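Entry 14. Structure prediction run on the chain below.
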Amino acid sequence: MSKRIAIVEDDPAIRENYASALQKQGYDVLTYSSRPEAEQAFMQRLPDLAVVDIGLNEEIDGGFMLCQQLRSLSKTLPIIFFTARDNDYDTICGLRMGADDYLTKDISLPHLLARIAALFRRTELLNQPQVATDLIQSGALLMDSNRMTVSWDNHPIELTVTEFWMLHAIAKYAGHVKSRQQLMDESKMVVDDTTITSHIKRIRKKFMQLDASFDRIETVYGMGYRWKSS
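Output returned:
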């Protein structure tokens, strides 16, 4: 069964161009030109992945609003911001709202297709049989890479697909420093340092909402990040 991708883009030429390219890759593509139109459709049925522009018609931040609605409906649905707005502020805002990726429209079509395929490969791990090596336990942390679930002191923590694999990369080898490049490799991302920092901050914040004293994710300046085992 082909994956359903939703494209939310107000420019008809861009919308149809990418829809056609994705359909040629075998995806089932749904297109929407506005936030209200997309929200109404998503309340009926969620796609398997959403590609969202930030500015939608008169709504300068319509894509951000849509992302928040999608995250309220699904914690793990892959969301990609695909926008002409190339600045750190918008990138950080998008990732804080729970997007898995932030791409600018000047990237190549093969690059976009590769990022979509990478997100789908990660979500497909949910359907694989569980084996003991899928589990990571370190103190109060328990991660199941098959079901992509995380708990801290037996309380579940909802992470996006990208957040999960970034945490997995450092928790799997507790005490070892993981460089930003290694985090990108593990989570199938190609981003700048600011984006990685935003993801790490968001992960920390989710743990601290449960445990105000949480300090297991350590920044090793000039090197990367590590999970402190105790």
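The mean pLDDT is 85.
Filed with the rest of this week's runs.
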